Amino acid sequence: MTVQEQNAFTAFLANSRQYNHWNPIFTVMLGTGLRVGEVTGLRWEDLDFENGTISVNHTLVYYNHSKNGCYFSVNTPKTKAGRRTVPMLDNVREAFMQEKKYQEEKGILCQVRVDGYTNFVFVNRFGNVQHQGTLNKALRRIMRDCNQEILEKTDGKKEVVLLPRFSCHTLRHTFTTRLCESGINIKVIQDVLGHADISTTMNIYADVTKDLKEKEFGVLNDYLQREEIAI
C-alpha cells in the first residue's frame, strides 16, 4: 500500500465502532512485518514491554488434511534468521494494550493449547487462535466499508484515495516498503523480516527504490517544467 492508502486504512480502523476490535492485530502486522503465522502465534510471554521488544520464536500453522482433518500446529524456525527479536514501535505497544483491555472488558480468555503453547495474544471471542482465512475475510469487509465511507464523504467532489484489494501478506510487504523508503540499513531490514537470504531482501529493496526513484524524478520533472529550467 502507498502511504496514503495505509493512512486511510489505519484511520478507518481506529475510528470504526464496527471494526475497531480488528485494529490491534492489523496494527501489529503493519508495524512489525511479522508473517501471519508469527503474529497469530504470539504469546504474551513473547512480549517484553520493559525493553520494547517482541521475541519471534515459533509460527502457528493451520493444516487441512484429508485423512487427519483440520488442526493447528506450532512450527519452530528452520533457520537462525527465523528466530529473532523485533523492536516494538510505540503504536504497536499501544495495539497490544488495546487488545489486552478489549479482552478484559469482554471477558475473553485463551482457551486453547497447541503443541504445548498457550496464552496466545490474539484469540477470537471463543478463546481460540485466529485463522488466516478469517483475518483475510475481515480485511475484505473493511476494504469495502472503508471505500464506501470515503466515497460517501467526498460525494464525488474531488479525487479520493481508495483502498486496493489486499491480504494479510500485503501488510508485511507494506511494512517492508516503509522501511526501505525511510532509508533503514538493508541488513537491519533483513534481520527484522527474518530473511535467511539477503537476496530476498535485496529484491524487495530494489523494487521499492525503483518506484521511489521514478516518483522523485517525476517531482523533479514537474519542477523543471514549472520553472522552465533547461538542463
Task: Describe what this molecule looks like in 3D.
- 52% of the residues lie in helices and 10% in strands.
- It has eight helices and five strands, in the order H-H-H-E-E-E-E-E-H-H-H-H-H.
- The chain has helices at residues 3-15, 23-32, 36-40, 90-106, 132-154, 168-181, 186-193, 198-227; strands at residues 47-48, 53-56, 59-65, 69-75, 84-87.
- Strand 1 and strand 2 (53-56) form a beta hairpin.
- Helix 2 (23-32) packs antiparallel against helix 4 (90-106) and helix 2 (23-32) crosses helix 6.
- The radius of gyration is 20 Å and the shape is globular.
- The protein starts with a helix and ends with a helix.
Annotation keywords:
231 residues, mainly alpha, 8 helices, 3-stranded antiparallel sheet, 52% helix
- Helical content, roughly? 40-55%
* Low-confidence blocks of residues: none
Q: Summarize model confidence as the mean pLDDT.
A: 90
Q: With helices defined by DSSP (H or I, 4 residues minimum), what is the helix count?
A: 8
Largest sheet: 3 strands, antiparallel
N-to-C SSE series?
HHHEEEEEHHHHH
| Gap from first CA to last CA | 34 Å
The value of Rg in angstroms is 20 Å
Q: Order of strands across the widest beta sheet?
A: 1-2-5
Strand fraction: 5-15%
Query: What assembly state would you assign to the polypeptide chains in this entry?
Result: single chain
**Which word captures the global form?**
globular
Helices and strands: which structural class? mainly alpha
Total beta strands: 5
